[in-house]
Design a protein that fits this description.
Chain lengths: ~250, ~350
């Protein structure tokens, strides 16, 4: 019988088993980036920046030149790369601890300067690698390793909506929030990721960022299926999906 | 052209592709000069939002194989230590100039040498070294720039130039291009896009058991080479000296005047001046300690390099110290007095 291949590994995604937990969104996000790189034919001139966090080993899975940098500093590193290599496609891949906590200064100023880089921002509402502590994006009432009674606005403040903040800056030309919670949402996310890269390929004057609401079943203490529901039912209340800019 | 501007021009001549910096006194002439000159040369200048960002911009440019640098002064260099540790771990070349001011904390903006420990001990977290150069004149500062870029590229490690507020602000006649350039290895590790080759990865994380230890040994082997090959040290009037003063940077200029004055009064004084603070001229000082019976270390701090001198001397002979911290500058006559006080009891022995 003649078999037809209808789905396969995209070349920029390495044939390598990831270290991610079952139900984690990183694998999906990696695939979207790898597909985008292959579809745009930019594998030869793309440089990726891995964060500190669960995705620190992203270079084991994405077959492009990559660097691993200090916690939160990816947008500054990207600035140094892009300014000296305007012909290269530079992207950073950052979690919510990395981008929304320790690296707030770097992302705001990279956007403020209108750096021509692409940022993939994974928001899973916790610090994953260090053991599920509260992130700036942890929602109110959410139980984490450092909010055992649930996040209380009076003590821990409110969830930080970084994308909304960044969308205010003239240097940020494209900001969209998507979710990795269902095939339909993932297809939308793919479009957004691709657009964010395309802008850079086209030499658009500014920073593009896609926030991906992503699951962390282990530290949410939920099944993967429940995690997907939680993204759609709870996270999107605080982090509404859609295009915020551009 | 003041020292700050001269070093900036020397960096451009040395082939610096990108400058990233954040304003801080007393080195503000450098970013101002670079903001004008780098675009003229078609190169990159970015004023960063912080020293943290500046050093990470350097990290990014360097990871792609470009020659990049930053400059700052003491408190700013403290903020850069995270990035310097990552540069060392990831084996990236980079050049930093610390135009030192008084500390700790915000301290003051007067010239000081309080950052010797920070520059020569690694400064940030982890098991690493940075090459530290301590120029004494504006000419030497200018000569240090191409040397620093070449050393950084040759050994793939950060190089720090320790200047101070006096060197940065003073004007002296200079000649560019005096430093012979080295032939350097190709940067086949750089992130340039994986075209017709395997993926390149620049990293400082080594998780599997034993892999970081192996990486640390590799770094140490490199540091051993630097220690073996790159020591620079000036010896002035040392051969017949009865007392040798050891000082670096601007302090050494004052010591030189004191040594000259002492000689005029018939006191056989000499000067050993480390130019590389790491690698430290341990051997040269150890050798001098075999012949001499007294050393005086002079620093514009409460005593930091003196520890390296004591390690080199290894108890063979007394090592005395005279220092002025917090922006205090030793005067020639004070030093001369000190030399006289020491040489008389030493002669009696």
């Amino acid at each position: 019988m003649k078999m037809k291949t209808i789905f396969e590994r995209t070349p920029t995604l390495k044939n390598y088993t990831t270290h991610y937990c079952p139900g984690c969104g990183h694998g999906i996000a990696h695939r979207l980036i790898a597909e985008t790189i292959d579809e745009l034919g930019i594998h030869d001139r793309t440089i990726g920046i891995a964060p500190v966090g669960c995705a620190v080993l992203a270079y084991n899975y994405l077959d492009v030149d990559m660097v691993e940098v200090a916690h939160g500093r990816a947008p500054a590193v990207a600035t140094g790369m892009k300014r000296t290599n305007p012909d290269k496609i530079i992207f950073s891949y950052q979690g919510d601890g990395d981008l929304a906590a320790i690296g707030t200064g770097e992302i705001i100023h990279a956007a403020h300067r209108g750096e021509q880089i692409t940022v993939i921002f994974i928001n899973n509402a916790v610090f994953g690698m260090t053991g599920g502590q509260m992130a700036p994006t942890t929602v109110l009432g959410q139980v984490t390793a450092t909010t055992p009674q649930g996040r209380d606005a009076a003590n821990e403040g409110y969830p930080l909506q970084v994308s909304e903040l960044l969308a205010l800056l003239p240097g940020a030309i494209y900001v969209e929030r998507c979710a990795l919670s269902s095939p339909a949402q993932i297809r939308k996310a793919k479009k957004a990721v691709k657009h964010a890269f395309e802008l850079q390929v086209d030499g658009a004057q500014g920073l593009s960022l896609v926030e991906l609401l992503s699951s962390c079943p282990v530290y949410w203490r939920m099944t993967p299926a429940k995690s997907m529901e939680w993204i759609e039912n709870e996270m999107t209340k605080v982090f509404p999906l859609g295009r915020l800019k551009g | 052209m003041c020292g700050n501007e001269a070093l900036a021009e020397a960096a451009i001549i040395a082939g610096c592709d990108a400058y990233f910096g954040y304003p801080i006194t007393p080195q503000n002439e450098i970013p101002a000069y670079m903001s004008k000159r780098m675009p003229e040369e078609g190169r990159v200048f970015v004023q960063s939002e912080s020293e943290l960002a500046a050093i990470n911009m350097v990290f990014g440019a360097s990871a792609t194989g470009k020659r990049s640098m930053t400059t700052s002064s003491s408190p700013g260099i403290s903020l850069m230590q995270e990035g310097i540790s990552y540069l060392a771990g990831a084996e990236l070349p980079a050049v930093m100039v610390n135009v030192m001011r008084g500390g700790p904390g915000l301290g003051n903006i007067a010239p000081s040498q309080g950052d010797y420990f920070q520059a020569t001990r690694g400064g940030g977290h982890g098991d690493y070294r940075t090459i530290a150069l301590g120029p004494s004149t504006v000419q030497e500062l200018v000569d240090c720039m191409p040397l620093a870029f070449d050393l950084a590229d040759q050994y793939r490690m950060p190089v720090i130039i320790l200047a101070d507020g006096i060197l940065g602000q003073m004007m002296e006649p200079i000649v560019f291009n005096k430093t012979p350039r080295r032939s350097l290895p190709p940067k086949d590790w750089a992130l340039t896009g994986a075209k017709d080759r395997e993926q390149n990865i620049v990293r400082s994380l080594w998780l599997p058991e034993g892999s970081l230890e192996k990486h640390n040994y590799k770094l140490q082997a490199k540091y051993d080479q630097v220690q073996k090959n790159e020591v620079i040290c000036e010896q002035y009037q040392v051969d017949d000296a009865e007392i040798v003063v050891i000082a670096y940077g601007v302090a050494a200029r004052i010591v030189r005047s004191a040594v000259n004055k002492a000689r005029k009064e018939g006191i056989k004084a000499g000067l050993i001046r480390p130019v590389t603070l790491w690698p430290f001229p341990t051997e040269q000082i150890a050798k001098a300690a075999d012949e001499l019976n007294i050393f005086l270390v002079v620093e514009m701090s409460m005593g930091q390099m003196v520890e390296d001198v004591k390690l080199a001397v290894a108890g063979k002979t007394p090592v005395l110290f005279y220092g002025r911290p917090g922006g205090g500058i030793p005067a020639v006559d004070q030093l001369l007095e000190r030399i006289k006080q020491l040489i008389i009891p030493a002669k009696k022995q």
